[in-house]
Amino acid sequence: MTAGPGTRRTPFRWRSPIRGPWLTSMFALPLLVGLPVVIVTGLLDWMAYGPQFGQSIPSDVGLLRLPFFEWPADPPWLFRLTEGLHIGLGMILVPVVLAKLWSVIPKLFTGPPRGPVKALERLSLVLLVGGILFEIVTGLLNVQYDYVFGFSFYQAHFVGAWVFVGAFAVHVILKFPTLVRSLGSRSLAKELRTPLSRTEPEPPDEHGLVAPDPDPPTMTRRGAIGLVAGGALFVAAITAGQTLGGWLRPAALLLPRGRTTAADGSSRTPGFPPDAVPGPENDFPVNRTFVASGIAPAAIGPMWAVTLTGGDGEVRLDYDQLNALPQHTAELPIACVEGWSTVQTWSGVRLRDLAGMAGVPEPASAVVQSVEVGPFARAQLTSSQVLAPDSLLAVRVNGKALSRDHGYPARVIVPALPGVHNTKWVVGIEFRRV
């Protein structure tokens, strides 16, 4: 096909004969379905951190604040599901996003828009592209590395998400009729049967996606769709293991933050019980090791005790006394904001039993304090989280004492709670009446 008289020759990189409204719409369709899931699960995860207590990050979001509701402790896999979908599906959609951007790149280099509708469309496109690229890059870096940003990832990611959400909503409203019309312009079944020799450009379109002077085809539309689908499936194969666990975990190459800790040097801690030396029972992922926390070994040594307050006095329990109390065992997951999760069998004292010992059998909330220093050394739990029958101050995992990396002498385990709020190295719990 040659250019007609007066036709402006497009740059060589935008002369693909398969680019056009139909292929763009094919790439847009899975994004139209998948991106709302990523958005909703991300917002739900922010709610899971307890914004009513000011401990969601960012906590002060002004007009972007969502209506508060109490994050449930049942089903126990709820946060594992929402965070796994948010991270996993977000990564799976990256090849589709890149393909969609390739398909519309001529639109980013056209002249100034004419009219308010076109101007709004162009603005939404710029914010859409910038927003989703920012979310992808910052999200992937946060999954891969420990705090590499010179700014607060959580605050930037949250604000960037709202910029993207607004642009996405406007773009869908403006372009949905075009999407429907374009999808109906060609038969998917026919395109999947079309060989390279019969691959032809789409008719000229008003949006400028079809090249007026296309190159000969080197790939069919079937091939392009298959390439993107194959890329998405490949990403799924190397990420799903960090959420699903089991035999798939070693294949999770893109989510290395959930490292395992078969040996953490616990046997060198003064007073550390022989039963708590790390072994296969403690060999499951952890986001922050004991050494990385900077805690002095003496802080969890023989003088350690957990203090329960909230009633008329305080109750102090050392390690042996805590182990002598009635123990409850539950199989519960831990899920982290970076997307990895694991399910283990935990044993310890029910939080509701400890609340009764403290003199507050029906607490309105509880504040858990760690010996660690830092932003996650303190977590506040709702009444339902404290009173849930499987909420524990755990001292054992898989039948063996916790290792230092997993929170020895005791850590909180609450169903459906974000991993970072399952506080490790607990030294105190305040059960609040109001």
TrEMBL record:
Record's keyword terms, sorted: Membrane, Transmembrane, Transmembrane helix
One Pfam family hit: Oxidored_molyb
Oxidoreductase molybdopterin-binding domain location: 303-432
InterPro entries, A to Z: OxRdtase_Mopterin-bd_dom, OxRdtase_Mopterin-bd_sf
CDD domains (alphabetical): SO_family_Moco
Composition bias type Basic and acidic residues, residue spans: 192-208
Region (Disordered): 192-216, 259-278
Transmembrane segments annotated in the record for this chain: 21-44, 84-102, 123-141, 153-174, 224-248
Stored PANTHER family: BLL0505 PROTEIN, PROTEIN-METHIONINE-SULFOXIDE REDUCTASE
Name this polypeptide is given: DMSO/TMAO reductase YedYZ molybdopterin-dependent catalytic subunit
